[in-house]
TrEMBL record:
<comment type="function">
    <text>Part of the ABC transporter complex MalEFGK involved in maltose/maltodextrin import. Probably responsible for the translocation of the substrate across the membrane.</text>
</comment>
<dbReference type="InterPro" id="IPR000515">
    <property type="entry name" value="MetI-like"/>
</dbReference>
<keyword id="KW-0472">Membrane</keyword>
<dbReference type="GO" id="GO:1990060">
    <property type="term" value="C:maltose transport complex"/>
</dbReference>
<keyword id="KW-1133">Transmembrane helix</keyword>
<feature type="transmembrane region" description="Helical">
    <location>
        <begin position="23"/>
        <end position="45"/>
    </location>
</feature>
<keyword id="KW-0812">Transmembrane</keyword>
<keyword id="KW-0813">Transport</keyword>
<comment type="similarity">
    <text>Belongs to the binding-protein-dependent transport system permease family. MalFG subfamily.</text>
</comment>
<feature type="transmembrane region" description="Helical">
    <location>
        <begin position="183"/>
        <end position="202"/>
    </location>
</feature>
<dbReference type="GO" id="GO:0015423">
    <property type="term" value="F:ABC-type maltose transporter activity"/>
</dbReference>
<feature type="transmembrane region" description="Helical">
    <location>
        <begin position="141"/>
        <end position="171"/>
    </location>
</feature>
<keyword id="KW-0762">Sugar transport</keyword>
<feature type="transmembrane region" description="Helical">
    <location>
        <begin position="247"/>
        <end position="268"/>
    </location>
</feature>
<feature type="transmembrane region" description="Helical">
    <location>
        <begin position="208"/>
        <end position="235"/>
    </location>
</feature>
<dbReference type="Pfam" id="PF00528">
    <property type="entry name" value="BPD_transp_1"/>
</dbReference>
<feature type="domain" description="ABC transmembrane type-1">
    <location>
        <begin position="209"/>
        <end position="434"/>
    </location>
</feature>
Length: 444
């Protein structure tokens, strides 16, 4: 009975259980929710009730989320008429839905608390005053209470944009159907079918996906291998002034990546860049090489992008591996030398396994970073050279740079939202599978 009462009116079950303080606490949420809805709506207007005209924050928000509006705006001599903005309605609806979800937690808490307390009393348990309950709650759940403001902020600052992007993928929101003049509508899986079944879109997606995977793997392997090699060399006792060398090799990491990418872009400029001119001057080429703009040689641009990424990325792994090497006991190598192991065997059977065990999770994170490495590709090649077989993309475009072009350059927001979901699924799946197979993660 108390549980059912709290399900109908929050706090009613606590009042039946003679816990007035708890009843007031839960009823305050209930009354605030109802009052908010009434004040923000037009429930007292003398007209036929409709969610669009009379609903408050929650009713009109949920109506807008499901319908995305019913009254389009029209252009007249005096400007646009009054109407619905589908994107605003979607955002407001998500806010209302997430707010209701948070309030639902309080509602479930109220129902369960009333039912459990009554069951405890029926089982011979002692009565508990509201003040004692809240004191016990403060001591036992202080961590959750302290984390709750951050959780609420996370819901509206992180979860809300993610859900908004997911919903856009199921609409016709694009440059051909832009609010506020037009209403956006739900189209189901039509955008996904476009990406995977329309030949031109499917060819673009497949080609960019393959290059993105190749880029992520090669970029990660090369930066890690180079960083490991340099860290091992700097750890050698034969190297003089290791701190100076280490500082020099950290310089590429200290310079902002965007600045470095723009500098390399100027150096490899096919028309004015010094590298193309130097190749001609020394006789290695008969004419200037157009690294980023030659559509017949897209691998030139891809190779340069990988080299630039190597330059920018190896210092991170060098510093990381150097820290690991400093913590490997010298007794390991002394025992190996006594057993007759040479430098290569020591590197293979001692250095690599210890380093690998420590840095594998970060290698996976580096793969994820390279998969979405927008800065190097966009500021170095801008996705070029052009590819006539691709839609709104070039030969060096990654999925993330293609997504950027689809949304900001071409305003295909629905297709861009589909691509963001695809990227999330691919990156998330690879990360989860690899992290679950990593000993360093399983032992945490």
């Amino acid at each position: 009975m108390p549980g059912l009462a709290s399900a109908l009116v929050w706090g009613a079950g606590q009042l039946i259980n003679r816990q007035v303080g708890k009843a007031a606490f839960f009823f305050a949420f209930f009354a605030g929710t109802v009052l908010w809805e009434i004040v923000s709506g037009n429930y007292y207007a003398g007209m036929e009730f409709t969610p669009r005209s009379n609903g408050g924050f929650f009713v009109r928000g949920l109506w807008g989320l499901f319908t995305l509006g019913t009254q389009p705006r029209e252009m007249t001599l005096t400007g646009l008429t009054e109407g619905d903005n589908s994107i605003v309605l979607m955002a407001n609806g998500l806010i209302a839905l997430l707010t209701l979800a948070l309030l639902a937690i309080v509602w479930i808490w109220s129902v369960r608390d009333a039912a459990r307390y009554r069951a405890a009393l029926n089982g011979g348990g002692q009565t508990e005053a509201s003040g004692a309950y809240f004191g016990r709650l403060w001591e036992g759940a202080f961590a959750y209470i302290a984390l709750s403001p951050g959780l609420i902020l996370l819901v509206f600052m992180s979860v809300l944009p993610v859900l908004f992007g997911i919903l856009v993928a199921f609409t016709d929101y694009s440059r051909d159907n832009l609010p506020p003049k037009n209403l956006v509508g739900w189209v189901g899986l039509e955008n996904f079918a476009t990406i995977f079944t329309v030949p031109s879109w499917a060819a673009t997606f497949g080609g960019i996906l393959v290059w993105t995977l190749v880029w992520a793997v090669v970029a990660t392997v090369t930066t890690y291998a180079a960083g490991l090699l340099i860290a091992v060399l700097l750890a050698s006792k034969r190297v003089k002034f290791p701190r100076m060398w280490r500082s020099i090799y950290l310089l590429p990491w200290a310079v902002p990546a965007i600045v470095s990418a723009l500098v390399f872009r100027s150096m490899f400029n096919g028309q004015f860049g010094p590298i193309s001119q130097w190749l001609v001057d020394v006789g290695l080429t008969d004419e200037r090489v157009y690294w980023f703009t030659d559509p017949t040689s897209p691998n030139l641009a891809r190779g340069v992008a990988l080299l630039v990424n190597l330059w920018l990325g190896f210092p991170f792994f060098m510093a990381l591996v150097g820290g690991v090497l400093a913590n490997i006991p010298d007794s390991y190598y002394e025992a190996a030398r006594i057993d007759g192991a040479g430098p290569l065997q020591q590197f293979r059977y001692i250095t690599v396994p210890i380093v690998q065990r420590t840095v594998t999770p970060l290698i996976i994170l580096a793969f994820v970073h390279n998969f979405n490495n927008f800065g190097v590709i966009y500021f170095l090649t801008e996705g070029g050279p052009d590819n006539v077989d691709y839609r709104f993309a070039g030969s060096t475009d990654l999925l993330v740079t293609w997504l950027f072009k689809l949304t900001l350059d071409n305003r295909l927001y629905n297709i861009g939202a589909v691509m963001s979901l695809v990227i999330f699924v691919i990156v998330g799946s690879i990360s989860v599978l690899n992290l679950n197979r990593t000993k360093a993660i399983r032992e945490l």
